[in-house]
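Why does residue order matter? Because the sequence determines the fold. Keep that principle in mind as you read this record.
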Amino acid sequence: MNIAIGLAALTAIATSAGGFLAIRSRDRLHLVLGLSAGLLLGLVAFDLLPEVFELNSNTFGNVRVVAIAFVLGFLALHFAEQFFGSHEPAESDYGHEHKHSANIAGTLGALAMGGHVFLDGVALGLSFKVSNALGIAVFIAILSHAFSDGLNTVSLLIKSGHWTKRAIALLALDAVMRIAGAALGSYVVISDSTLSLYLAMFSGFVIYLATSHILPEAHSRHPSRITMLATVAGVITMWLIVGNIG
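Structure:
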């Protein structure tokens, strides 16, 4: 089996674990989410961005095109979430004004999450084309992201009142989409310049998720100091990982 596809399959375990804990308990999830955000930030800062700037030196309007792709990736996910209403913090209040559209918003939001995990899988497959070291770093970050995805998929559906069967189906969809993305990323043939643009956009996705979704959720109902320490630990962990596998 292709290594990227195999690792993408493993992330399904993390997604399922996040979904299970969303139902059972959230008492310590803020620490895991804080750590996850740190891992994602470290991945982008220490591995992805240096790699894409090395792969592509083209400019547009006196600005590196990979930097433009990074911003476009950030904005694309932001606009998609505004439209679909996905990635609402799992612990946020759900006001009465939203209840009339809970079923539609909850399901559409969870389905939109399936779309971005497909892009996760593509990034995993493409990263192994650059190097095994980058692929492993991306896998570690996606693993932490997958946990958060499972948490939020189930939480959205609990709020909509349809979490029993639909939660299981959409958790399975997340797993299938990530594996399918990894398969596509592993076998598609693209140039280094195109690869760098996609990975730069993926970096924008990752930063958006870490800063606008995972960190606010981690701090929503818990003391922030311990959570901040968990985030710093995540950054340092990714620094050590990149430094030792690079």
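The longest helix spans residues 102-130.
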